[in-house]
Amino acid sequence: MRGSRFAPTWAAAAVAVLCAACTVGPDYKRPQVPAPQAWRADSYWRLASPSHASLALDWWQAFGDDALDGLEKQALMQNQTLAAASAHYAQAKDTLAYTSAQRLPELDLQGQLDRLKISKDRPATTYSTPNQSTVQNEVLVGPTITYDTDLFGRIRREVEGAKASEEQAADDLANARLVLTTDLATDYYALRELDAEIDVLNQSVKLQDKALDYVKAEHDLGSVSGLDLYQQQAHLDATRVQATLLVNQRAQYEHAIAALVGVPAPQFSIASKVTETTVPPIAIGIPSDVLQRRPDIASAERAMASANAKIGEAKAAFFPSLILNPGIGWESTAFANLLTAPSLMWTLGSQLSQVVFDGGRRSANVRFASAGYVEAEANYRQAVLNAFQQVQDGVTGLSVLDDASKQAHAAVIDARRLLSLANDRYSGGLVAYLDVIDAQQSLLTSQLTEVQIHGQQMSLSVALVKALGGGWNDQMTADAGTTQVAKAKGNGS
User: Closest by alpha carbon to 59, among 187, 178, 193?
Assistant: First the structure.
């Protein structure tokens, strides 16, 4: 504050005002992506009315399973991956606030208190006046102002990029929530499918055990050979092995669910239960709806906007920068005279800088930023293509599985009839016991196939909800993020 740096400060300020509206770099425009007119679907599907009706935030309640409802709520409260996404969103909001603050002047207040002695033997400034050694106080106080005029929009582009990044983080949080809830539901229905398979095997064990008792009695009477007895015993043992292996698979799904809901695996368990579940109706809408529903697509689009802003930042580095730094204050050798008119001092300063030669560094930054935008656009277009593929897979798959489920049910009925007939013919001595074993195996295979197809239907329904972007829209994102951050802080995360 002890002198003037540039006299024509007001002229510089006038230039800043004239250039304030100048922002270099390309303005962002969302690229157009072609969307199919409709999905390839058969009579199994009916479009929702209206077709763009969004799936509910708590979409899993449509499956009507209280146990799943409780697990989903627990996961939303305690899952650490979601907590991390929430913290990232909070960071993005603070980064935007920090970047936006650069558009405002910075006001600093400084104070200085010194007692100093000046050397008598210092170099002389004039030969006519000899140097003297003095001891004196110096008291200085006053504010300073620093203001970047942002002549060519560098800061404006930084704010634009930070805003897009904040919105991208919000979309990433929504996507993390969707991935969490759908992964949990997928594991849950895989576990329930294993419950049903184990139950089928246990029922088959009971049936085969009764058959073994019957064959033993016949063997003791001498009506059948030991071959029939050992065939039935071997078949029973094989079925028990299958059931035991499925118990291990079920435990792995149970452990996976424990990690998703934020509970150590040794402290978590889900009781085995065989329930009747039905595939809920899902409003698939029209293909263009997916572009508004899916948070990962929204995130990829915001990444493009951020990358576009970085091009403007890189180009602005080629242009002059003007910083205004006026100052005012008081300087005195004594506190008593500090705030008096003779102690007043001020500066009207500005700092203008312009790169002359940098060896191509700024040009490389522009090319780097431009390539980053090309990458972001390619990622966006691929995300859209993946979304269309995933939804069409779900639509086609559920249609096929619906037919397969009906056929599998008919196969179970036929297998039961076959087993009954084989038992009757064996009791009458018309067939060998191997025919009964084959009939038992046929029934077991048909029952397991029916259960597995139904499990695939439930899992694919969840996958379709995920592909459609279920449980997400723009309005819900901020509230969900704020809530999750608060919960994470409350849990000490």
Answer: 178
Burial of 453 (0-12, 13-18, 19+ CB in 10 A): buried
Alpha carbons 23 and 153: distance in angstroms, whole number:
4
Q: For the whole model, what pTM was predicted? A: 0.83
Q: How many CB atoms lie within 10 A of CB 262?
A: 19
- Segment holding 472, helix H or strand E: none
Contact 292, 470 (CB under 8 A): no
Q: What is the pLDDT of residues 15-43, one digit of tens each?
A: 444 455 578 888 999 888 888 888 887 76
Left, alpha or beta for 262 (phi > 0: left; psi -120 to 50: alpha)? Answer: left
Question: Which structure tokens are listed for 278?
Answer: 């039905």
| Pairing mode of beta strands 350-353, 321-324 | antiparallel
Long-range CB pairs of 249-252, under 8 A, 24+ apart, other chains included: 249/194, 250/191, 250/194, 250/195, 250/198
Strands 327-332 and 344-347: antiparallel
Q: What pLDDT score was predicted for residue 55? A: 64
Q: Is the dihedral of CA 16, 17, 18, 19 positive or negative?
A: positive
Residue type for position 357: F
Longest Cα–Cα distance of the chain, Å, equals 142
Instruction: Identify the residue whose tokens are 């063997």.
Output: 219
Instruction: Report helix, strand and coil shares of the chain as percent, to nearest 5.
Output: 65, 10, 30
Q: In this predicted model, what pLDDT tens digit does every residue of 434-486 receive, in sequence order?
A: 888 888 899 999 999 999 999 999 999 999 999 998 865 544 444 444 444 34
DSSP state of 132: -
Of residues 384, 386, 391, 441, the one with CA closest to residue 232: 441
What are the Cα distances from residue 132, in Å, to 114, 170, 305?
19, 68, 65
Look up residue 112 and give its two tokens.
């200085």
Neighbours of 477 (CB within 10 A): 22
Please identify which residue in the block is written with the tokens 């606030």. Answer: 97
Torsion of CA 50, 51, 52, 55, to 10 degrees: 90
